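Backbone geometry:

***
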Amino acid sequence: MRTFEEDVALAVQYHGHLCSGQCIGVKMARLAMRKLEIDIEKDPKSIMVFVECDRCPADAIGIVCGCKVGKRTYEFYDFGKVAASFVNLNTGKAVRIWRKNRRHPKEGEDMIAFYKNLPDEEMFQVQEVEIDLKPWDMPGPPLEVAICSRCGEDVTDCRHLMIDGQPVCKACNGESYYKVVTDGKA
């Protein structure tokens, strides 16, 4: 297993700078893998992560766990919390870990050493949780592709709605994050 310092270095390389969030995310991911008895180097496809914030810890968690959105092992929920749930895909066991204190190193203190030496139980709360993973939520190729009856776009993995017996994507149902300004062609 990599050291804490090695994981921080990987996270910093990806994220672009060292910050408390990188150390917190690294520490959280390492704790989760211990609790779930996952050796990421021996079994890199054994974990799925659900992060609850779009801040610095999210990058570190993804890097340390080897999870990626495109591999369907990394999900984001915008709850604004420094928290994440981790699932051992081999056993189904899951934990949710959240930061329970706001301790930071003092000015000039070695940030990496501070977080490395801060006991997990002082920093985090660990909850055993259940996550209802459907077959279409799992990593791997799409299990189903529907064509939206309104816009004609592909919708994978049961993310469509059935309205009046027709598949409709969430965007066409008013759940879009964007507004079409022009409907040009590529």
Summary: The mean pLDDT is 94. The CA atoms of residues 162 and 168 lie 6 Å apart.
